[in-house]
Amino acid sequence: MSSYRSEQRRLTHRGREFHFVSYEGRPANERRGETALPPMWYLMSEGKRSPVMSQIAGQELAALDRALIAWLDEHVFEKPLDAAPGRRAG
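Predicted structure:
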């Protein structure tokens, strides 16, 4: 039996709420042709989960939130807020 504990983060970004859940990794299964997966964060949406990034044990919440927001900017909003027209980075 595993001692893994799932974690959850709820973030509001650009006026929308996002729900992330971590799941335990899985070993490779050669019979099924599946490669091993590390523990990962997933975005939960409409009853489905989408892989986001590997989970780093002991990562500070502020750093985790920044990484999740960066993922949202790249994959959901397609560009960072700083790259929006009329905005300066920094």
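Summary: The longest strand covers residues 16-23.
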